[in-house]
Amino acid sequence: MSNINSIQYQAAHSIFTQLDNLANLQNQSKISLRQALDFLEFNLEQKPFAPQRQASPIQVLGLLETTGLRFSHLWVCGMSASNFPSTSQLNPFIPRSVAEEFGLPRCNQDQELEFAQRTLGHWRSCGAELHFSYTQIDNDSPQLPSKLVLDAINNATSETEEAENSSTNSKSNEQQAADYSLRHPLMVRQGTDLEFVEDGIGTALADPHIKGGTGILKNQANCPFKAYATSRLGLKQPRAAKDFLDAIDRGNSLHKVLENLMRIYSDSDTVKQIGAAEIEKQCRLVLKKHRGLPSTFIENEVQRITDLVNQWLALEIQRRPFKVSGIEQNFELDLGGLTFALKIDRVDEIDQQEVIIDYKSNKNTVKGALSEPVSDPQLPAYALLSGKVAGVYFASIKDQDVSIDGIADPSGNLVASSNKGFSIKNPDGKNLNSAESHISWNEKVAKWKLELTELAQDIASGKADVAPSKDACKYCHLTSLCRINAQ
Ligand code: SF4
Question: Which comes out higher in pLDDT, residue 114 or 358?
């Protein structure tokens, strides 16, 4: 059970419990594999799987999961008449009379009603700011709000009104409008003009230390709301449970193999000596931590990484003389009052200048670093790390496509001529080996610094407007939160 994440662990635990139950069956006669699998499937389906969640200020919970919890704010959705109270769903193989005689839980509508009343009572007693909502149309059928909820709100409103009437008989329009919003958060008196207010500012950042690299800068550049939601509200895209290694694991293995090799073979002379046996040895060493996986899978992975490393080394040996001076090195970058913690894959020295190389296991180009405004601030941020940096590069090491893309001053050029697999641009975005740049490397770096400082200041001030760049929404997991499609 090593090397599995928490949800997988809890899933495995559930399965082991059912296997124990199977083993403890009183009936000692043998059962077939099919019967055993049916038993497991049936029992696993019956048992709700509710993995333990990480602590978070905002929780999205099922109705049952709210039992016993306390909240400061609670938004209960799906409160239509057809959903709350819900309809009792008696197992079709158990006659209702038997279910009632033996007191099976929630076996008739009276029990459902009681259950809903208790749940509602619990929500109301939490002292939370409480909102209820329901969808007006579901599967093309118009829906009504839950009567139970409406009654509760009306009772609460009349109690409040009685209390208020005793102190004053006249109410301002604003107070009356507030009473309406008690019934439904979007309910307003007829004739009231709705005013739409765009509020794109969250709270200012209290802690100026930013962990996790330049990802937040990239999100801020492409959609400030996404940056705020993922980095400030913690709404990162959850990583899917997996049986084998996912793209992140496989990328990490490749990174680690390259890191290990570069720690041993750390300049342009020794890199030529890396042989097949050494690469394979490093692959096996790195993949050892995944020892629970089938051996054929591991063998394929060793082969895959070995091929990629060989293709990468074929590029390395074409380079101008270099010396690796930093591997997985930590840096801090101060921008606009914030401090970004960065970990750099590799720093190489060339003629007393430095170039920074970032390994990628997918194809990355410098288009986003050269665009105006910058849409991918990673390489520009790396260029700001020291006055000695004269070139910044993505090393894309992916199946069928191993290449280097970068932007550099001539002194930070990796190759003396335009070699296949190297795409190196001057600060103007033209081929470094064949075109003059109108602006110098230092001017470009200064321009990047201004742009990135502005982004950092936006992050610090809590700027969070829904303003995506052209392709930002394509693979974003937040469409239902930002409601970009409703605009
Ligand atoms: S879906 Fe688009 S607009 Fe919404 S948060 Fe993501 S990038 Fe921004």
Answer: 358
Residue 255 Cα distances to 18, 270, 316, 360, 422, angstroms = 39, 19, 15, 8, 20
377 lines ligand 1 (CB under 6 A): no
Question: 100-112 pLDDT, tens per residue?
Answer: 888 887 788 888 8
Atom of ligand 1 nearest to the CA of 223: 8
Q: What single letter denotes the amino acid at residue 235?
A: L
- Distance between CA atoms of 130 and 145, rounded to whole angstroms? 16
Q: Which of 223, 480, 481 maximizes ligand 1 atoms within 8 Å of its Cβ, making it the mutation to test the pocket?
A: 223
Give the N- to C-terminal CA distance of the chain in Å, as an integer. 46
C-alpha–C-alpha distance, residues 192 and 151, integer Å: 25
User: Above 60 in pLDDT, residue 182?
Assistant: no
Beta strands 422-425; 401-408: pairing state: parallel
Q: How far is CA 351 from CA 322, 354, 393, 410, 414, in A?
A: 8, 8, 17, 11, 11
- Asked if residue 248 lies in contact with residue 242, where contact means CB atoms within 8 angstroms, the answer is no
**Cα 36 from Cα 246, distance rounded (Å):** 30
Q: What gap in Å lies between CA 10 and CA 16, rounded to an integer? A: 10
Atom from ligand 1 closest to the CA of residue 466: 3
Give the integer Cα–Cα distance in Å for 195 and 112: 40
* Across 194-211, average pLDDT: 87
**How far is the C-alpha of 451 from the C-alpha of 445, rounded, in Å?**
10
* pLDDT tier at 272, thresholds 50, 70, 90: very high
Q: Whose CA is nearest to atom 7 of ligand 1?
A: 473
pTM: 0.65
Out of 479, 480, 481, 487, mutate this one to test ligand 1's pocket (max ligand atoms within 8 Å of CB): namely 479
Mapping DSSP to helix (H, G, I), strand (E, B) and coil, where does residue 242 land? coil
Q: DSSP string of 295-336? A: HHHHHHHHHHHHHHHHHHHHHHTTSPS-EEEEEEEEEEEEET
Tell me how far apart the 2 most distant CA atoms of the chain are, in Å. Answer: 92
